[in-house]
Design brief:
468 residues; alpha/beta; 4-stranded parallel beta sheet; 4-stranded antiparallel beta sheet; 15 helices
Length: 468
């Protein structure tokens, strides 16, 4: 198995430190709002990576942190007249609810920054004792000049960085690149006690403290979005290696940017979508299939047209599942060796072993569906053993790795699909009535749906619904 390692800028053979155990850390959300669809891509691709490692027989310990103390979180709490912990609790729950809907496997640990103050303070003290950190009136900074490898992940030159950093020069720092480990307490902000006085941790030190606490000094895989390479991940390396003297991460994985209709997602452009909003209109499996059809490291252009295409592709797979279930129900006896299932396993593993090439893996799924359907058409009275092997292949690959199908849920999902299509039909009929100025019929459709627990919400971009 090969993984593209951002640190080395090349694909490398995957050799975990203590096989079959694999330690895997991925950057989670800052819980001040619902996470957007770009975050969802990172979370889903990390999930697929983890699932494939499990498929290959590795014992994976997967940790995703939750940043529950941060400038944005404090700002939102102050704006709403609430405590930061109330805001964090609300959006932590929303995050966990939404990733469950996206079929993302639960992490082994969801460490929260506020629950690791002891580890954070201890790590800063260790850096201070090694003369890599310094205190200026209660603000503690990391001394970048004391870490020779600074810039090795991002490939940035420290001299060039210093020139840019001088634009926002902080007179308290020895060097413009030095970053905050501990922030002195300010009015109307939460704070914790420390040897440097009352304050709170910087963002970067939180991840270093949580990852080493739960996974040890050296991690096999650390994942996150491309936007985190610098400064966040660069600073994580400096902090952790500066404190432990050991390599921090063996393999760095980074997920590409997501654009909306070929433009960068931005609230000001009106093309900003949360995962929660998208899940109201599309199945989680469709979102996962769309993401799978693009390599994790490259950019992805996200559009409703592409999602509709993924929905159609998913429907082919769901129809296939129904065919397999019907074949199993026939329970025709006998062994079956005339169809070569082995070649599809080999193809699937070959492409996934090549830096988790999910686009080719998804293509193999559709090849398999096409070839099995053709075999069914060309051969009468196939035994249940044939259908069972087809089911096992789809469960292990499309189900357990890509997370786009479940045989157990197929019947319920079919009913849900029909319900969704009927509701959307009524929404279209209501829109046609409104276009014809038949507001009485439009209101009747809305009211009848509401009586059934389906509430419509109109906006400039169209009509959505939710169940009460």
């Amino acid at each position: 198995m090969k993984i593209y390692n951002t640190l080395k800028r090349k694909k490398e053979n995957f050799e975990p430190s203590n096989p079959p155990k694999v330690t895997f850390y991925t950057c989670g959300p800052t819980v001040y709002d619902y996470f957007h669809i770009g975050n969802a891509r990172s979370f889903i691709m990390a999930d697929i990576t983890r699932r494939y490692l499990i498929y290959k027989g590795y014992d994976v310990k997967f940790v995703m942190n939750i940043t529950d103390i941060d400038d944005k979180l404090i700002k939102k709490a102050n704006e709403q007249g609430r405590t930061f912990s109330e805001v964090a609790a609300e959006y932590t729950k929303a995050f966990l609810d939404d990733i469950e809907k996206l079929k993302i496997k639960k992490a082994d640990v969801y460490p929260k920054a506020t629950e690791h103050m002891e580890e954070i303070r201890s790590l800063i003290e260790k850096l201070e004792s090694r003369e890599r950190a310094y205190n200026v009136s209660g603000d503690v900074f990391y001394d970048v000049k004391k870490f020779e490898g600074y810039g090795k992940l991002s490939g940035k030159n420290t001299d060039d960085l210093e020139v840019g950093a001088r634009i926002e020069l902080n007179e308290s720092k020895r060097n413009p690149l030095d970053f905050t480990l501990w922030k002195k307490a300010k009015e109307n902000e939460p704070a914790w006690e420390s040897k440097w006085g009352s304050g709170r941790p910087g963002w970067h030190i939180e991840c270093s403290a949580m990852s080493t606490k739960h996974l040890g000094d050296t991690i096999d895989i650390h994942a996150g979005g491309n936007d985190l390479i610098f400064p966040h991940h660069e600073n994580e390396i400096a902090q952790t290696e500066g404190a432990t003297g050991k390599p921090f991460v063996k393999y760095w994985m980074h997920f590409g940017f997501l654009n909306i209709q070929n433009e960068k997602m931005s609230k000001s452009l009106g093309n900003f979508f949360t995962a929660r909003e998208i899940l109201k209109k599309y199945r989680a499996e469709s979102i996962r299939l769309l993401f799978s059809q693009s390599h994790y490291s490259g950019p992805l252009n996200f559009s409703e047209e592409l999602l509709e295409s993924a929905e159609k592709g998913l429907q082919k797979i769901r129809n296939f599942v129904e065919n397999i279930n019907e074949g199993l129900a026939g329970n025709i006896p006998g062994e079956y060796t005339k169809f070569d299932f082995t070649q599809y396993y080999q193809q699937f593993e070959e492409v996934m072993d090549d830096d988790f090439d999910t686009p080719r893996a998804a293509a193999i799924m559709f090849d398999f569906v096409r070839d099995v359907n053709k075999h069914i058409v060309e051969n009468d009275n196939l035994p249940a053993a044939f259908y069972q092997q087809a089911k096992i292949f789809m469960e292990k690959t499309a189900g357990e790795v890509l997370g786009i199908v479940s045989f157990d849920e197929s019947k319920d999902n079919s009913n849900n699909s029909l319900e969704k299509e009927l509701i959307e039909l009524l929404i279209r009929l209501r829109q046609e009535a409104k276009n014809d100025k038949n507001y009485q019929l439009a209101d009747k459709i809305r009211d009848e749906l509401k009586s059934l627990g389906i509430v419509l919400k109109d906006s400039k971009t169209g009509t959505t619904y939710k169940k009460e």
